[in-house]
Amino acid sequence: MSILESVGAANGLLKGAADLVRELKRPRVSEGTFAEMLRQAAAASDPEAQARQTRAMATKRAGEVMRLRDVNGDGLLSRDESGLKADAFTAADGDGDGMLSAEEVRQVILQNAGVSE
Questions:
Q1: Domain boundaries 47-117, CATH class
Q2: Contact between 66 and 102 (Cβ < 8 Å)
Q3: What is the pLDDT of residue 7?
Q4: Distance (Å, rounded) from C-alpha 16 to C-alpha 13?
Q5: Which residues 6+ apart lie within 8 Å of 79 measured at CB?
Q6: What does the domain layout of the chain look like in residue ranges?
Q7: What does the radius of gyration of the chain's CA atoms come to, in whole angstroms?
Q8: What share of the chain is helix, strand, coil (3-state, %, to 5)?
Q9: DSSP string, 20-46
Q10: Mean pLDDT (10-residue bins), the chain, 117 residues
């Protein structure tokens, strides 16, 4: 074997080793995570899917707000519990009863996201 052939063979081995190390360092995702990434990508290209996702998020967030802010546990937020300024509270209080329900909080979240029912 000539020196050039030896150098070529060594170069091939080094390239193969470098490719193997690069492959081993590449981040891996589970099948479930990959499937979720594909669903999110599909939703991003489908306005109705995006709106459904936003509605689901708004329902979840409204529940979180109620759980965190409803100090007396009556299922409604007073203006004090809400932490909103008077004009923002009045705008959010759709039925004008002086309290915010989870649905009214959800509607505000949807409005801010630019999504209608």
A1: mainly alpha
A2: yes
A3: 62
A4: 5
A5: 86, 89, 98
A6: 1-45, 47-117
A7: 28
A8: 70, 0, 25
A9: HHHHHHS----HHHHHHHHHHHHHHH-
A10: 66 76 79 85 80 92 96 96 94 96 96 87
Tokens of 28: 């891996």
Q: How many residues does the chain have?
A: 117
Q: What is the DSSP letter of 100?
A: B
pLDDT for 4 equals 63
Residue 112's Cβ-count burial label (10 Å; 0-12, 13-18, 19+) is exposed
The residue written with tokens 């509605």 in the block is 55
**What residues contact residue 115 under an 8 Å CB cut-off, 6+ apart?**
51, 54, 55, 58
pLDDT of res. 10: 67
Let me know if 59 is exposed, middle or buried by CB neighbors in 10 A (0-12, 13-18, 19+).
middle
For residue 11, the model assigns a pLDDT of 73
